[in-house]
Design goal:
The complex is a heterodimer of chains A (697) and B (222). Chain A is an alpha+beta fold. Chain A has twelve helices and 36 strands. Among the domains of chain A are: 30 residues, no CATH class; 155 residues, Rossmann fold. The radius of gyration of chain A is 31 Å and the shape is globular. Chain B is of the alpha+beta class. Chain B starts with 5 loop residues before the first helix and ends in a 12-residue tail after the last strand. The chains are: A alpha+beta (697), B alpha+beta (222). The interface between A and B is large, with 72 and 95 residues.
Chain lengths: 697, 222
């Protein structure tokens, strides 16, 4: 028998055979399908709950850039002791042949006291004036319409600012120079400072509405974030390259010998003119503004100070900055703890951020002790908890949590309120310590609503924030931790996870210095901020800005830890000379006044007080802005002015499509699977036939 | 549907044992059995996607009836985490579909999905609905400019739209979800309609504007 004999068989019997076989196969397939359908309905994957929330829907390609000014930023810091003064130069070059107004939304540290703005056009330097926000905007609008070069700087959030430069001539460059002052962070014996470079795309919750406030962002205003258009600068697709180069120079005078200096996220060049001093330069001249810059250093050996007290005299008043590090202690009794971990799995976390967050969570889970209880909550467009209630720590429950966390994917929105409501139940059980560890990049536009939620539902719980990724929202991290009476930390790289989480856990486990209060000596009138001092965790110093009538007598600082009283004395006269202490005090007071709004203070009087303070100390606040006008008319009457928003980079490590979305995928593999299935059945039939014993013709 | 050239090579493979010496029956039988099982599984998988798409719509129809009675977020089956937000009809084609909340893969398996962040179908603004071109939105290839689309909202009111334009775009053309402009329905599915595999970059988009019979009572969108 050879294959050539096959056609001799009746075609009809072959066809019948094939038909009956296919009918059987189809029956089997349909039965399988029915069973699988029942199965899939049971195992249906979690659909993203569709709560209202603005999608991130405007993107930017190369064409839209034609008119946008090109930006380069040059930053120099002078650091002395506990204080840094920054000089930020934003150079805008108009590459087009039109007259252009540039709008640039950029971040600064959340506690930056911005007290100077100048505009530089060629050799001309125009000093900016601080004005009430609306007045400044009117001054700017008038100058803009009159064709005069002008610059305006508004504050949108404590860490988001907008600069606008009107009437940049074709192919011309204009620079806006900003100066700010900042207190360094001092913790665990290390000083550090951060310089954010990019506003990460924020999730804007709420229902879209006709924009109440103008702006050039990719999101229109919503009922929850009316000013969304002002805090969502256009983002360039990473494929189009990186823009906005930054140069940084730091002149550091620590006042004590420096042991080591580190910049975890950028290459730096360090020179050492003396034991106490360092000159630092960014290693690359073309560093794009796409992630926070951090610099930290430690004093040599036993030089770590326990106390620093700087003062400055200004118009008859003494302004002082106190930094006091209480000695740490180990707990007398250890109460059992309930720890709730909250993990942000929104689209902005996709990429390296979610890896860092998962790694941090695994590290934290491994550190729980038997006797404690824990739970894990993940959230994006909606929030879900691993367990309905906290469960006891056991190898099995921890393993289960690790597996659950490992399977989570970062996508969807950032409905943080749902997660916070789930984590903060408002309960207060004195027999247990309840702590919430919140891992997020904080990329939301509705910070204020969340702060109010934290305040209302905190109860006896303590909230700790872990800022994840290359450009976390520092305002959210620090304020949420302050209102949650916890602490914050930042993780920007996977290899920092172990050390940062260990430090955080040391805080979770050590007793807190509570009820800290200041007793000023008799005869000294003092106004110090913050007005309510925070609880202090291990390694954290007390930082207070004060305005005093005289430097005399002894300040006593009191608190209690583990039921025991702790007290320290500071002789006020023994202060070191500082500069810019008045500015820091005023910035601190503005922060305290803004906080009081959340506690129910009326906006009218607070606004008036902030404006008075800001006008005296020349500060940019929510209610005051800098404006600079060059009175020489520049733009001819018949030339149009084009407005262009300066695009920003996507923060390093983020995934564009997870943040800005794609159109839904509108197809399945069902036809392909059915075709492949049918072909396999056909081949099966052919093989089955050819294997059957046949009679010779 | 034209066969991919790659099929030629695979198609040649099963014939090889049929030549030369008399083949032994046993390995052939198990090969046949394996092929049939694999084939049934593959076919079943494909059929299952189709089956659950249409079975689910029937369950969702009941949930929609409950929605119209006033139940919020009526779930079609108890463990579902999506729910119908509108009913979509194309009278000319005799089409009726229930639109689910959320336009991600897990909702789209059961029905066309409403893109989170855009107004609900029937509300003012640009409502974006996505769906699969080989199940619920396969009918879009027959939709032509001028056709009427009817949306029933959760409160029972109906809103009529007229198809203005159909376009083939890229999946990254998120501008179609922008809110500026008249109140409209934007239907998105994959393109081309007869592609075998899922996941291509092209999208087929149908734009339908609200008929202007109720313009006065609704606010304009920025």
């Amino acid at each position: 028998m050879t294959p050539s004999e096959l056609p001799a068989r009746s075609t009809r019997s072959v066809a019948l055979d094939l038909l009956s076989f296919l009918a059987l196969a189809a029956a089997v397939a349909l039965a399988t399908a029915a069973v699988l359908t029942a199965g899939v309905l049971l195992l249906a994957g979690r659909a993203q709950a569709a709560e209202p929330g603005a999608l991130l829907i405007r993107s930017l390609d190369g064409r839209a850039l034609a008119n946008a000014p090109l930006l380069a930023t040059d930053v120099s810091f002078r650091v002395s002791g506990m204080v840094a003064r920054a000089h930020v130069v934003q150079s805008f070059r108009n590459p087009s042949s039109d007259w252009v107004e540039g709008v640039y939304v950029f971040p600064l540290p959340e506690d930056a006291a911005v007290d100077r703005l100048t505009m530089r056009v060629g050799e001309r330097v125009i000093e900016g004036q601080i004005q009430e926000r609306q007045a400044a905007q009117r001054t700017y609008a008038r100058a803009r319409a009159a064709g005069q070069k002008s610059a305006l700087m508004d504050q949108e959030r404590p860490n988001i600012f907008t600069s606008r430069i009107a009437n940049i001539a074709p192919h011309e460059s204009v620079a806006v120079e900003i100066e700010y002052q900042q207190t360094l962070r001092y913790e665990g014996g290390r000083y550090s400072m951060r310089f954010p470079m990019v506003v990460g795309p924020r999730y804007i919750p709420g229902v879209l509405r006709v924009s109440a406030q103008e702006g050039h962002g990719w999101s229109p205003g919503t009922d929850q974030v009316p000013d969304a258009a002002r805090v969502t600068p256009p983002v360039l697709r990473p494929a189009a390259g990186r823009i906005n180069p930054v140069r940084i120079r730091v002149t550091l005078d620590a006042g004590v010998p420096i042991a080591d200096i580190a910049s975890p996220y950028h290459e730096i060049l360090v020179s050492s003119p003396s034991a106490n001093r360092r000159e630092i330069l960014l290693g690359s001249a073309t560093t794009p503004a796409d992630r926070d810059f951090e610099l930290s250093w430690a004093p040599l050996g036993a030089q770590a100070p326990q106390l620093a007290w700087f003062t400055e005299e200004k118009s008859g008043r003494h302004y002082g900055l106190l930094v006091l590090l209480p000695p740490s202690a180990s707990p007398a009794t250890r109460l059992p703890r309930d720890v709730v971990f909250v993990l942000d799995t929104s689209g902005s976390m996709a990429g390296s951020s979610i890896q860092q967050a998962k790694d941090a969570l695994h590290t934290a889970l491994a550190r729980l002790s038997p006797g404690d209880q824990f739970n894990v909550i993940e959230f994006n467009s909606s929030a879900q908890a691993l367990h309905p209630r906290a469960v006891p720590v056991s190898p099995a429950s921890v393993r289960r949590a690790v597996e659950w966390v490992q399977g989570l994917q970062a996508r969807g929105g950032t409905e943080m309120a749902a997660a916070l409501s789930l984590a903060l139940d408002g309960e207060d059980d004195p027999r247990r310590v309840r702590q919430v560890v919140f891992l997020t990049d904080g990329s939301v536009g509705n910070e204020e609503a969340l702060f109010r939620l934290i305040r209302a539902r905190l109860g006896g719980t303590r909230l700790f924030t872990v800022g994840i990724g290359s450009a976390p929202n520092s305002h959210f991290m620090t304020k949420a931790a302050q209102l949650g009476r916890g602490a914050f930390t930042f993780i920007g790289r996977i290899d920092e996870v172990q050390q940062k989480m260990a430090a955080l856990f040391a805080k979770l486990e050590s007793p807190v210095l509570k009820g800290v209060e200041l007793v000023w000596p008799d005869g000294v009138q003092a106004e110090s901020w913050p007005s309510r001092l925070p609880d202090l965790y291990a390694g954290e110093p007390l930082v207070v800005a004060a305005a005093l009538s005289r430097l005399q007598g002894e300040l006593r600082v009191r608190g209690s830890r583990d039921g025991r009283l702790w007290e320290a004395q500071v002789p006020l006269a023994s202060s070191a000379q500082g500069s810019g202490m008045g500015t820091l005090w005023a910035r601190s007071k503005v922060g305290g006044l803004m906080d009081s709004l959340r506690e129910g203070a009326e906006e009218g009087p607070v606004r008036a007080e902030v404006i008075d303070l800001a006008l005296v100390h020349r500060l940019v606040t929510r209610y005051t802005s800098f404006v600079a006008v060059d009175w020489t008319p520049a733009r001819p009457r018949d030339a149009d002015l084009k407005v262009a928003a300066v695009p920003t980079n996507l923060p390093d490590g983020w995934e564009y499509d997870k943040v800005f979305g794609e159109l839904p995928q509108g197809s399945t593999d069902s036809r392909f699977a059915m075709l492949v299935g049918a072909l396999l059945l056909l081949f099966g039939w052919i093989v089955a036939r050819s294997s059957r014993p046949r009679r010779l013709a | 549907m034209s066969p991919d050239p790659a099929w030629g090579a695979e198609g040649a493979w099963p014939q090889a044992p049929a030549s030369g010496r008399r083949p032994r029956a046993f390995p052939k039988r198990s090969l046949a059995l394996a092929l049939v099982l694999l084939g049934a599984l593959q076919f079943g998988q494909g059929a299952w996607i189709q089956a659950k798409a249409w079975v689910a719509q029937a369950l969702i129809a009941q949930a929609w009836a409950r929605t119209l009675m006033g139940e919020a977020h009526a779930k079609p089956w108890p463990w579902a985490d999506t729910w119908p937000v509108a009913r979509l009809r194309v009278p000319a084609l005799g089409i009726e579909r229930y639109v689910l909340a959320g336009a991600d893969g897990s909702a789209l398996a059961f029905g066309p999905g409403h893109l989170v962040g855009t107004p609900a179908p029937g509300d003012a603004g640009n409502s974006v609905v996505g769906g699969h071109r080989d199940t619920h939105l396969a009918f879009l290839k027959d939709v032509k400019p001028g056709d009427l689309i009817e949306i029933q909202r959760a409160d029972g009111r109906s809103v009529a739209y007229r198809v203005i334009e159909t376009l083939v775009l890229d999946k990254r053309d998120m501008w179609v979800a922008k809110q500026e402009g008249p109140t409209r329905l934007t239907l998105v599915t994959c393109y081309p309609f007869d592609a075998l595999r899922a996941g291509g970059p092209q999208r087929y988009v149908v734009f339908a504007f609200e008929l202007e019979n109720r313009g006065g009572e609704r606010g304009m969108r920025g």
